[in-house]
Amino acid sequence: MSQQRHTETTSKIKQTFTILLKEKGLDALSVSDIARGSQINRGTFYLHYLDKYDLMDKLQEELIQDLLAILDTDVELSEMDNPLDIIPYSQILKALQYVKQEFTFIETLVGEHGDPKFVAKFKAIISAVIKEKVSHSSNLKLGTEHLPKDYADEILLSGVVSIILLWIRKGAIESPEQIAKMITQTRFLSPSEIAHA
Amino acid sequence: MSQQRHTETTSKIKQTFTILLKEKGLDALSVSDIARGSQINRGTFYLHYLDKYDLMDKLQEELIQDLLAILDTDVELSEMDNPLDIIPYSQILKALQYVKQEFTFIETLVGEHGDPKFVAKFKAIISAVIKEKVSHSSNLKLGTEHLPKDYADEILLSGVVSIILLWIRKGAIESPEQIAKMITQTRFLSPSEIAHA
DNA sequence: TATTAAAATCAACACGTTGTTCATAAAGGA
DNA sequence: TCCTTTATGAACAACGTGTTGATTTTAATA
Predict the structure, then answer these.
(1) Mean pLDDT of the B124-150 span
(2) Are strands B140-142 and B145-147 parallel, antiparallel or unpaired?
(3) Which nucleotide is nearest to A5 (CA to C1')?
């Protein structure tokens, strides 16, 4: 069927694109490269996408929508979740499992020749999940000083996201369960405690 | 003097490049754009740089070398420094003051159309400073689990770096002193404590 | 002031990529 | 079989690239 043929062409394009993106980055890669690598006519590419940026956008949008669908479901807390924690274990776990499922492309997006805009979107999604849970109380007294809310939010967020990004960049060696547990438990340790083991 | 003329040309190039980088990013910007914006002949650009990537490299290298010079000096701890802390207040302060001094270009490098490779280099420099101070003891017992050293290091690092990056991206409104103090003091709070003020 | 070397200009070059168009061919469902 | 969708192939003008060679400008210095 034509739908089948269509799918085959676009998935070949995605595959070639991922390889080229990983080895050269988006700037250095041309539509001609994609066409050559996919063994399709260059015109065929333009039948599906406006240009290489449009292709990148559409592939990322797939991931973003999937992640949103996974994380936006209102969770009734499962038995694993600690209601005091800022981020539900079960939701993080599901997100990590999805990352593993789409690993080839996500690893590339997060890697050296990847796209910081995707990382930013990913951060924003995690941020939304966290913010739902964080008490809406304003600033935190810090000795005689204030820790402004925007900085407090950023620190929280980066603690979670940096673990996930390191996991991906190392090749997702650990299981999603291990990482989810690590994230949950780390919430109760200060950097000073982490450093001076 | 000819040295003067040379400096004027390259600094005009840097200025135009910074503007274009901020508004389009490195991919979308051409050597022709730079030449037009700087009101120089395109050939003149190639008298100084191999291509736009070479220009980017050289501008970044300046910053990196300056930062290394600032941070590599072996500090005898100043009276402000707490010898127990993982990162010396006085060193961080000097780095932040330099960032403020070179703010226009650094803000661009760290911004939406900036270069993730620069952020990575910046992280690596901060990482080196931190690692000197962190106890070389291995893993940390975390309940019944271990927190692997690579993840512990990454969490420490991202806590510091994310504050600095947020500061830059917001336009460096706060003083370097405020940020340095924030970084130093935050080391003793867990994410959980930060969240539930 | 005249000389000289460095720095900048200008035009031209071949080349690759871009996005578009048009005519044609292949595929496969109705 | 017919018909629509999908893919092909060739050609197009436009633009950016990096390089060349001839020329002019600049400013230091002899």
Answers:
(1) 72
(2) antiparallel
(3) D6
- Which residues of chain A does B134 touch, with a Cβ-Cβ cutoff of 8 Å? 195-196
Residues of A in contact with B162 (CB under 8 A): 154-155, 157-158, 162
Residue-level pLDDT at B131: 81
Distance from CA of B190 to the nearest CA of A (A): 4
| Contacts with B114 from chain A: Cβ below 8 Å | 116
* DSSP bridge pairs for A141: A146
pLDDT digits (tens, 9 = 90+) for A55-103: 999 999 999 999 999 998 766 666 566 666 677 889 999 999 999 999 9
Output the CA–CA distances (angstroms, integers) from residue A180 to A78, A94, A129, in the order listed. 14, 9, 14
Residue contact B116–A117, C-beta within 8 A: no
- Count CB neighbours of B58 within 10 A: 14
The dihedrals phi and psi of A141, each to the nearest 5 degrees, come to -65, 130
Segment B66-82, tens digit of pLDDT: 999 999 876 666 656 66
Best of A52, A179, A189 to disrupt the B interface (most B CBs within 10 Å) is: A189
- Asked whether strand D has any atom less than 7 Å from the CB of A30, the reply is no
What is the pLDDT, as a whole number, of residue B142? 53
Query: With contact defined as beta carbons under 8 Å apart, do B71 and B91 qualify?
Result: yes
Smallest CA–CA distance from B25 into chain A, residue: A27
> How distant, in Å, are the alpha carbons of B7, B10, B56, B64, B188 from that of B3?
6, 11, 22, 24, 51
Predicted TM-score (pTM) of this structure: 0.90
Does A194 contact B154 at a Cβ distance shorter than 8 Å? Answer: no
